[in-house]
Amino acid sequence: MIKNVQYNANPSADPLSKIARGLVQLGVRQLVVAGGETAGAVVQALGITRMQIGAQIDPGVPWCAAYSPLAADRVLHLALKSGNFGSPDFFAKAFAQLG
Q1: Would you say the pTM of this structure is higher than 0.90?
Q2: Ramachandran bin of 37, using left for φ above 0, alpha for ψ from -120 to 50, beta for the remaining angles
Q3: Distances 99 to 17, 30, 37, 41 between C-alpha atoms, Å
Q4: How far apart are CA 35 and CA 38, in angstroms?
């Protein structure tokens, strides 16, 4: 088990992680996060405790079922896309897949 992991994200990722945290606290349960450092900052900000790999959106980028204390025991659907993955229509495909 990994404990007390510190993630030093790019400073521009911090405001986006705060936005993601606020959205989840307001009830949003589907997030697509682009950028590797931003994705790491968002996962940390949401206090993600575990993730389960789901359906593939594009090669190397699946939807994940994530568990966060901010989601009141409800599953979050996250897609964490690094900059080098995904086709030009990735975002449209991601949300179309969840319906």
Answers
A1: no
A2: alpha
A3: 24, 11, 27, 26
A4: 5
Would you give the end-to-end CA distance of the chain in angstroms? 35
- Residue partners of 5: CB distance under 8 A and separation at least 6: 44
What does the block give as tokens for 49? Answer: 């405790």
Domains of the chain (ranges plus CATH)?
Answer: 13-98 (3.40.980.20)
Q: Residue 11 pLDDT > 80, yes or no?
A: no
Can you point out the beta strands (E) in the chain?
A: 30-34, 50-58, 61-67, 76-81
